[in-house]
Amino acid sequence: MGRILVLAEHNTGTLDAVTGELLTAAARLGDPAVVLLARPGTGQDLAAQLGPWCLSDVYLAESAHAGTRLTTPAVAALEAAVNLARAAGAEVSGVLIAGTIDGREVAARLCVRLTAGLISDAVDVRLSDDVIVATVPVLGGAYSVEATASGLAVITLRPHSIVPDGPPANGLPGAGAAPVPTRIEIDADLEVGPGRGAEIVAVQPRPATGARPGLTAASVVVSGGRGVGSDEGFGLVGDLADLFGGAVGASRAAVEAGFCEAGLQVGQTGATVTPELYIALGISGAIQHRAGMQGAGTIIAVNKDADAPIFLLADFGVVGDVFTVVPQLIEAVTARRASTGATTQTTTQTSAGTNTRGTNDQE
Ligand SMILES: Cc1cc2nc3c(=O)[nH]c(=O)nc-3n(C[C@H](O)[C@H](O)[C@H](O)COP(=O)(O)OP(=O)(O)OC[C@H]3O[C@@H](n4cnc5c(N)ncnc54)[C@H](O)[C@@H]3O)c2cc1C
Fold first, then answer.
1. Measured over all CA atoms, what is the biggest interatomic distance in the chain, rounded to whole angstroms?
2. Which of 66, 195, 250, 272 is deepest in the core (most CB within 10 A)?
3. Is 160 a pocket residue for ligand 1 (Cβ < 6 Å)?
4. What is the CATH number of the domain that holds 255?
């Protein structure tokens, strides 16, 4: 069983959820171990958060360059970890990295350094006859292909594409019994000189968007498209999202029309979301949009064109004008809540069912 290295993602002292997704994927492929790049003095606390995973090893690289240089410290840490594992006699068969903007660059640079094979934007991985096979959507999500790499496979995995198992009770396959992983300090040269990575001179946090949950973490996402007509019309999207305690998303056409900010875009060149419920208002369902939301649990579409492609994907579809349908939906949900005292989540499911029709039963 080969060793699979996972590059941990963390933010303000806490491991990101995507680290659990990567570890879940790694456990399917071999013996998982984590590479942790952190500011000096912060790595031990982060490593301790990995305790429940019962990993055999954590490769810890503390560097003053972490957070001050773009991508190159992570590349150096991964390269050092691969070399350390190999020096200890392990066969490193895969490296898993979150498919973020930074992660994609780290992966590409690492492949050049190690002469490894790069598989980008995977949504699933499996082991077949000891070969790592990755599922990769192509052509805007219209098709999926299976990709393999000869030798070491460096794979970027799209966030939210794998449901994390959570730390296993008895350790991951191949892991030792110790609850706290062995820390292997990376003593490699992380001194990335000028010209080998851009320097971060300032970080400006994005202002909070009110009380709404983040787009990629929300269990309900309501998105608006060009069909909502204006930024005032887009307010209806927010009203429905707030009713369900959900996040607001948008199509690219809505963003380009100036109805909302670019950070709300869902799709191939925007965010990938996998909420339990996705409601598309006035969105045609172009493949580039579907690429970012087709993994949602239940999809509801409201569109006045019965032939809109979004209905091919939707579990429930309402053929109608959003300005007629959505206010009625809000009114019905509010009235039902008042009469039943149902919780937000329960009402979401119930009301969706009573206010929409199946894709094959449109009107
Ligand atoms: C390389 C590339 C990357 C792209 N990436 C993305 C991406 O990440 N995300 C993305 O979304 N797009 C992306 N696009 C754009 C994509 O191809 C579509 O143009 C876009 O998704 C269309 O957005 P829309 O559905 O809101 O607009 P439209 O296609 O114009 O559809 C509007 C819909 O609203 C309906 N409608 C109009 N008025 C009403 C009303 N009053 N009530 C109900 N329905 C109404 C219409 O029937 C229509 O179906 C990308 C394109 C390219 C080439």
1. 68
2. 250
3. no
4. 3.40.50.1220
Reported as a single tens digit per residue, the pLDDT across 1-22 is 799 999 999 988 899 888 999 9
Mean pLDDT, the chain, whole residue set: 85
State if residue 254 touches ligand 1 by the CB under 6 angstroms criterion: yes
The tens digit of pLDDT for each residue in 307-319 reads: 999 999 999 999 9
Task: Compute the distance from residue 252 Cα to the ligand 1 centre, in Å.
Answer: 6
Whether 351 is in the pocket of ligand 1, judged by its Cβ within 6 Å, is no
Which residues constitute the domain of residue 269? 220-361
Decide: 225 in ligand 1 pocket, CB within 6 A.
yes
Say yes or no: 22 and 165 in one domain. Answer: yes
What are the distances in angstroms from CA 45 to CA 33, 40, 42, 110, 189?
17, 11, 6, 26, 23
Considering the domain boundaries, does residue 212 fall inside one? no
Is-contact 22 96, C-beta < 8 A? yes
Q: Is 224's C-beta closer than 6 angstroms to any atom of ligand 1?
A: no
CA 238 / ligand 1 centre spacing (Å): 18
Which residue puts its alpha carbon closest to atom 23 of ligand 1?
253
CA of 255 to the centre of ligand 1 (A): 10
Q: How many domains does the chain have?
A: 2
- Residues in the chain predicted with pLDDT less than 70, given as ranges, are 166-183, 186-196, 206-209, 342-363
Phi and psi, residue 129, nearest 5°:
50, 45
Question: 231 CA distance to ligand 1 centroid (A)?
Answer: 15
The secondary element (H helix, E strand) that includes residue 354 is helix 344-355
Dist CA 131 CA 287 (whole Å): 31
Specify whether 229 is located in the same domain as 354: yes
Does any domain span residue 55?
yes
User: Does the global pTM surpass 0.85?
Assistant: no
Q: Is residue 24 part of a domain?
A: yes
